[in-house]
């Protein structure tokens, strides 16, 4: 794209227009470029950065005479346009805030510089410094990001993430049309979900935030938006949407390998689960049949003719049924059991997945969340699941058809394994990283 001519009145206005042009290319790259040119984005931004620096150098003396702090801010901001840390940007921005401590934009850019350097405490101080002078949406949302990355003890972790959500909310209130603020609020909600009690409302709020971000043409092509939303879909086992989300993130930033790796790993996982179900865990008949024949109701343990305290706190009686008797969704007042015939080993430990076969030789997969590492079930274990939540996994992706039935278990503490209820040592909170590479 040919660089647009800059027509302004003063040298500083020209400098501002030059830097604005640079950031327009970075933030609105796909307004003038096809998705097939995504891999060239960094190169094109780097080329325009060099041109911008050359043009800024020509008017340097005039700009510094007019307002040296503002010129240093603009040059530092230009140098800060790329995703990696730039030492020269840091020096220019440090000088700018010394010359004019009231320059909020300089504090914000300096904070981002420290963030890229990995110095979160200094970044936090910069954004707080900016906010002490003016309530600014950029300061608030950047502070939200930094708070999520601060190294704090386990006791303070949830409070810090809650503060991150609060700052992102303030940013949205200042400008409800800014998609980037909505995107960062979604990321904060998503982080809080995996850090705290995993309240489903937090995931819903994250998805609402991402839907607002999707409406802003400045963020609709942000790879992080599509990646983090795909993380939620994957967790909710909406695998078709998750695969498409990872693919979209990868297409928007082909040089960022994580999204493509997630897409490939998820597709391989789904194909592996389907294959193991169809092949009954690849167990030979002489080993499989005795396992099925050994199933008896004594393995239900406390669920045999007993009661179960549901998530709503009610004590209910459970009726033993076969897999074929289950319906999609939650199956209230029912319990199923079977034998573990294989574990599904994938690239990621979440969820813990195994195949379970009932007395009629019907084989389904089971996914368990929030289970401690190394505390899963093994081949030959009998497993009883109360009020099972059932989903039909259907995916058609890249000429691959996947179709199988799965039981989702959000906590291992409801399971009865070999006649005994699992104890608290089997539970651990699921941790999933939220991407902020492109924010």
Automatic annotation (TrEMBL):
First and last residues of every TPR repeat: 104-137, 223-256
Domain Tetratricopeptide repeat protein 5 OB fold: 318-429
Protein name: Tetratricopeptide repeat protein 5 OB fold domain-containing protein
Keywords: Repeat, TPR repeat
């Amino acid at each position: 794209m040919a660089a647009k001519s800059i027509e302004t009145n003063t040298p500083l206005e020209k400098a501002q227009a030059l830097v604005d042009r640079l950031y327009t290319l970075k933030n609105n790259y796909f307004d003038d470029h096809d998705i097939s040119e995504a891999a060239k984005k960094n190169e094109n931004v780097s080329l325009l950065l060099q041109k911008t620096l050359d043009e800024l150098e020509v008017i340097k003396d005039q700009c510094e005479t007019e307002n040296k702090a503002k010129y240093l801010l603009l040059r530092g901001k230009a140098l800060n346009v790329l995703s990696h840390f730039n030492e020269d940007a840091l020096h220019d921005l440090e000088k700018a805030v010394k010359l004019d401590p009231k320059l909020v934009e300089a504090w914000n850019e300096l904070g981002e510089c420290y963030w890229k350097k990995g110095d979160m405490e200094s970044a936090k101080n910069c954004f707080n410094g900016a906010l002490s002078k003016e309530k600014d949406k950029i300061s608030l949302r950047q502070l939200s990001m930094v708070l999520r990355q601060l190294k704090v003890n386990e006791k303070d972790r949830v409070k810090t993430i809650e503060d991150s959500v609060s700052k992102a909310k303030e940013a949205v209130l200042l400008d409800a049309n800014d998609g980037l603020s909505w995107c960062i609020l979604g990321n904060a909600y998503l982080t809080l979900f995996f850090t705290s009690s995993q309240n489903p409302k937090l995931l819903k709020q994250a998805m609402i935030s991402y839907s607002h971000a999707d409406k802003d043409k400045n963020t609709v092509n942000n790879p992080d938006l599509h990646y983090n939303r795909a993380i939620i879909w994957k967790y909710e086992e909406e695998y078709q949407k998750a695969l498409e989300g990872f693919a979209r993130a990868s297409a928007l930033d082909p040089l960022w390998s994580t999204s493509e790796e997630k897409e490939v790993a998820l597709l391989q996982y789904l194909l592996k689960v389907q294959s193991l179900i169809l092949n009954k865990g690849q167990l030979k008949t002489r080993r499989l049949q005795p396992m099925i024949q050994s199933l008896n109701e004594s393995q239900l343990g406390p669920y045999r003719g007993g009661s179960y305290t549901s998530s709503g706190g009610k004590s209910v009686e459970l009726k033993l049924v076969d897999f074929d008797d289950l319906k999609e969704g939650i199956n209230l007042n029912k319990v199923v059991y079977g034998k573990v015939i294989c574990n599904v080993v994938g690239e990621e430990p979440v969820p813990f997945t195994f195949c379970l076969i009932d007395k009629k030789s019907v084989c389904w997969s089971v996914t368990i969340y929030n289970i401690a590492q190394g505390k899963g079930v093994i081949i030959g274990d009998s497993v009883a699941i109360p009020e099972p939540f059932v989903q039909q996994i259907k995916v058609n992706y890249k000429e691959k058809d996947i179709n199988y039935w799965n039981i989702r278990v959000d906590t291992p503490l409801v399971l009865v394994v070999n006649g005994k209820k699992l104890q608290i040592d089997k539970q651990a909170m699921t941790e999933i990283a939220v991407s902020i590479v492109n924010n």
